[in-house]
Each structure stands twice: as C-alpha cells, then as structure tokens.
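---------- Forwarded message ----------

FYI, see the Cytochrome P450 record below. Original note from H. follows.
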Amino acid sequence: MCKVGVLQIEWGHRFGSMERMTWGRGVEPSFRAEQLPTDTFPVLKYIPSWFPGASFKRKANSWKGIRNATITPPFMKVKKAMVNGTAEDCFTLRCLQRLERPDSRHDNLSVEEEIIKNTAGTMYEGGSDTGSTALLTFILAMLCFPCAQREAQEELDEVIGKERLPDHEDEDFLPYVKALVYECFRWQTVAPLCKYFRFPIPHRVDTDDNYKGYFIPKHSTVLANVWGILRDEKTYGPNAHFFEPKRWLLKCSGQRGWKLNPDMREPISISFGFGRRACPGKHMAVSSFWLSVSSMLHSFNITPAIDKDGNPIEPKVEYVSASQNRPAPFQCTIKPRSEEHAALIRRALDNDLE
Ligand code: HEM
C-alpha cells in the first residue's frame, strides 16, 4: 500500500500533487532508516543515553520528536473536524467515535487518544515504503516478462472491457491477475529474511520444537529465510527463479481457461511474516496492491524506455539490499493502452479529486 493511500485511510486526508511529493519527508528517516539495537536486544533500553556507545538512544529520542511532530497535526485535525462535524471517514475518526470518554480539549490528548494517534502513525510507518517497493517489483516484472503482462491484459479485456476500471468484486473472475499478484510477492519478496527495514526481525520460539531432526529449544531466536522458502525448487519447480504467474493456475475447460490451483499454498502467508508479529496490515496491503496492479494492467502498457538513439533499453533484474528488497532505479515507459483507456483514467482522477 502506498503512502498516499495509507494517509487517506488513517486521516482521511486527500493530498494535492505537491503535498503528495513533500509530505512526510522529514519523518521518513525516523521511520525507515534502520532499526535500533534494542529491537534485537531489548535489555539495552535500560542503558542511559549518556553511556558510551549509547548514541542509538539519543538518535531514538530525536526521531521520537520528528515522528510526533508529523503525526500529531493530522490527528488533531481529525479530532477538531469530528467536533465540527466535517471529518472525512477514516481510521482515526472511527476510533475516536468509539471512545467512551473523548477529551473535549482541542490541545490535549487522553491516553486512549495517544494510542489512536500512534497506531495511525505505525500504519504509516509499516505501510508506505513496503507498498511502493512491491509496486516497483510489479513494474519491473512487466518489463522483463512482457508475456505475463499480455496474458493479464487479455483476461482484463475479456472480463472488464474498456468502459470501466476493475473493482474488488471482479477479483474472483480474474484468476490470472490474482496469480500475477501472488507471483510479485513470491518472485521478489519485499522482506527476504523477514527483514523489515535494515535488520531482520527476530522471532522467539515459545515452546521446544523438533524440525527435521533439529531440536530447537524454547526461547531460541529464529530468523525465517523467506527468500529460500519462496524460491524452493521442490515447491516451485526448476523455474522457481522466473516470474511465472501460471505456476499458481490450473488450465480448465471454461470460457476463460484458468483457475487457481488449490494445491499451491499462496505466498501471502509467508511473505508478510509469521506468528504474533506477522504484518497486521497484510489484508489491506494485498487488496490495495491487487487494485493498483489490475488498474494499471487494464489501462496502461508498461514497456522499456527508449534511449537517445531510439533503441529500447534492455531491462535488467537488479535489486538493492537497502531498507527492503527494492529494485535498483530503472527506466520504463508507461502509456495508456488506447484513447478510451486514457479517458477512463482522467475520469477516475477527476472523481478522486472532487
Ligand atoms: C506490500 C506491503 C507490505 C509488506 C510486504 C509488509 C511486510 C511486513 C513484514 C515482512 C513484517 C514483519 C513480520 C514479522 O516479523 O514476521 C511486517 C510488519 C509490520 N507491518 Fe507490514 N507489510 C506491508 C504493508 C503494511 C501495511 C499496509 C501496514 C499498515 C497499515 C503494515 C503494518 C505493519 C506493522 C505495524 C508491522 C510490525 C508488526 C509487529 O512487529 O508486531 N504493513 N510487514
């Protein structure tokens, strides 16, 4: 899920194009630059900030200030708008409406309101860069595997046509698009070592366990090799390293030809983490990703960029191991598939900005 969508869901704020580009720049370093040693060794939180080597505590304090300065104003705006009866429907509004004892003072927050404010902030933190990374992977896959793009567009043309954009109700009728979404999360998972931001997120085993002859004692720290699981040739076959939506599908005799293979375990239960710390935003993330992918495929062609001599630039699968498993910067051309598709997109944009 991308930044703009998350912001709208949390605070009901529709952003103009300039705001879209600049909002949250100050806060981003604190959200995504790195995890702190305390995430892996919680006991370090007891070290005083003046202690030699405890610079991470000073850093955390300064980030706390930036974070607060970013997430407090939109929260206060919703709180004020709720009192005036002008608030847009959003997560913060719904939570505030459920409070038994809302704090009527505009400049004060009750403990419950602090929790709502910080939960919305955490959604921004978890949901913005991850969603854009997944979308970049999708665009790169469409460049490198044009066959998959073409087959998905054929399905969309048949089921949706040119008069409207796809909607969630269409999901079950678009098995190829669903398989393509699965393949994006499998082929280049956003968090390969269940790594979130720069460090892996360790998980703790809460009971003794035996796995294939290995004894894993209670309280052991385990790092899940998500990349390995999702590229396992025993499950995905010798072409596990290729982008191939059809691996999730079975050919059937019906009009449209494909259905999801019930014997293939979908990748969402792996690529969004495990256990109690599994991504709480995964349903929101997957459904907004599906909508973005199906709308883009429906209305645009994604093709290689053209160099100064008029030749297509060969796309390369190159990833940087930064905060997430993100494609290295690449160029491409994204153009409406036809005049009718362009008009459809313009109408959707006008409706959105109204
Ligand atoms: C494509 C989009 C996304 C991906 C690939 C993704 C992936 C992940 C992964 C791998 C984890 C670590 C899970 C673990 O430790 O086992 C995680 C945690 C988390 N995610 Fe997501 N996520 C996405 C979108 C979102 C969204 C939209 C939200 C909120 C609206 C969100 C909120 C969070 C939060 C709060 C955590 C920390 C949970 C905890 O530590 O208890 N994520 N995510």
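H. also flagged this: The radius of gyration is 23 Å.
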